[in-house]
Amino acid sequence: MRVHRQLGLTLALTLASAGAPDEVVRFEGRALAAKDLPDTVPAASRAAAERLEPFAAKHKLRVFVGTDPLVFVAPASYTEAPGILSKLRAEEILFAKKFEGAGAASSASAPASAPASAPAPASSSAPAAQGSGRALELVFVEKKEAFDDYVDLLASKHDYLKPWAATGKTGVGFTLLEPLASVWRRDPKEKTEARPSNQLVHQMGHLLVNAAYGRQPYWAQEAMAWSLEQTSENAIYAFCHRNGFVSVKEHTGWPAIGRKWLAAQPKLPLETIFAMKRTGEIPRDLAAGSLALIDYLVAKHRDKLTALLAAFRKELDASTKFIPLWVKVAVAIALGLGTMIGWRRIVITVGEKIGKTHLTYAQGASAELVAMSTIAAADMYGLPVSTTHVLSSGVAGTMAANGSGLQWSTVRNLAVAWVLTLPAAILLSGGLYWLFSWFV
Predict the structure, then answer these.
(1) Rounded CA gap, 196 and 174, in Å?
(2) CA pair distance 225, 290, nearest whole angstrom
(3) Which residues contact 85 (CB under 8 A, 6 or more apart)?
(4) Which of 198, 248, 362, 395 has its CA 20 to 30 A from that of 42?
């Protein structure tokens, strides 16, 4: 009887431990599984929590969610996380009051990836991301392995990030526009002046700018984040890319430095500050001046701030999201001339020299169907393929299936061309760029 009782107790404890794991998700102080989050949590935040749950469990992190769009991830051992979370949620309201009074969250300035039907916030105090339908992911880790795994997690969900993932792992933090995600890694053993509260408030600022205004020049995005950090923390410690030594006085005195520099300018230095890039070293006065300029615009020209940022975004989009007309014309002319000059050789090679007999209608149709399917699949998975290579391979396949045999000298030449195309194109384009750089 005692044995049965012990077995029953052991089984009950086993089932209990299996059914109630150490949940990593936190909602209003309660631990629960992401799938059990209430409907008051935005759908995007619940989806983000479910995606982050295994990652957080692996690296002993906590995922904090609420009824707002913010999803905050921090080490389980970081006891200040609840306090930081309160600051971040207060920052959402601060951002709306400080930068959205002129209607920055309207549909005219909504992020490009936001649903067309996404409603605008009900009032100027509503957080920017409320109307976008997207979650704001802010991830704070202390281990390099956790940082790298988060980069891999993002890349697994967004194909455009895969080529960048290796580069992303070399830093200690970044902020993305799509998805709205920001991560920072702090080594607790490293003796630096970095303050987690300042850094996280600063990166939250970047997320809020992305959610409300989309892509912005780096100086504007960084200055708005500095402004929020200064208001929230009464000091600035997130000197991203600042060059030179940062004195103690600068942490609290940087706004004054910026105002002094701005007052000495003969006119608003938009062109000068606009040149501030996302990477590299930023001069102290230029960085402080960008903060002073944003604060000046908020104080004196708040009604024009939304239009100004919308114009910045439009200029950035226009310079990166279109193909210039001259490029379209040049490519069309090159393709046309190439076909006019070399069509006979292409037709003879494909139709007569791949196989030992001439290409029949059935073989041509089969090869075209295979080429169409292969190119469509490559386009679906984002694979770079050559239509000529695909079609000539399809013709070779029909010849082999027909039993007419292949002209191996032609097949060998095609294979050599496949191998040499990439390096030859690299050398030619590199050489032309080097040549043109002497004259342009």
Answers:
(1) 15
(2) 11
(3) 64, 70, 72
(4) 198
3-state percent breakdown (helix, strand, coil) of the chain, nearest 5:
60, 10, 30
Tokens 């009824």 belong to residue: 67
Phi and psi torsions of 81, nearest 5°: -55, -45
The CA-based diameter of the chain, rounded to the nearest angstrom, is: 95
CB 71, CB 183: distance < 8 Å: no
Residue 256 DSSP code: H
Q: Which fold has domain 20-108+123-211?
A: Glutaredoxin (3.40.30)
Enumerate the domain spans of the chain: 20-108+123-211, 215-322, 341-436
Other CB atoms within a 10 A radius of the CB of residue 42 amount to 22
Contacts of 327 (CB under 8 A, 6+ apart): none
Secondary structure in 3-state letters for 285-301: HHHHHHHHHHHHHHHHC
Q: Rounded to an integer, what is the distance from CA 359 to the centroid of its chain?
A: 48
Q: How far is CA 54 from CA 20, 57, 133, 328, 416, in A?
A: 15, 5, 23, 46, 47
Contact predicate 276/242, CB 8 Å: no
Q: Is 23 left (phi over 0), alpha (psi -120 to 50) or beta?
A: beta
pLDDT tens for residues 192-234?
666 888 889 999 999 999 888 888 887 788 888 988 998 888 8
Is the CB of residue 361 less than 8 Å from the CB of residue 417?
A: no
Residue type, 362: A
pLDDT tens, residue by residue, 64-100: 999 999 999 999 998 899 999 999 999 988 888 888 7
Q: Where are the alpha helices (DSSP H) in 25-103?
A: 43-58, 81-99
Do 107 and 117 touch, CB atoms closer than 8 A?
no
Contact 74, 140 (CB under 8 A): yes
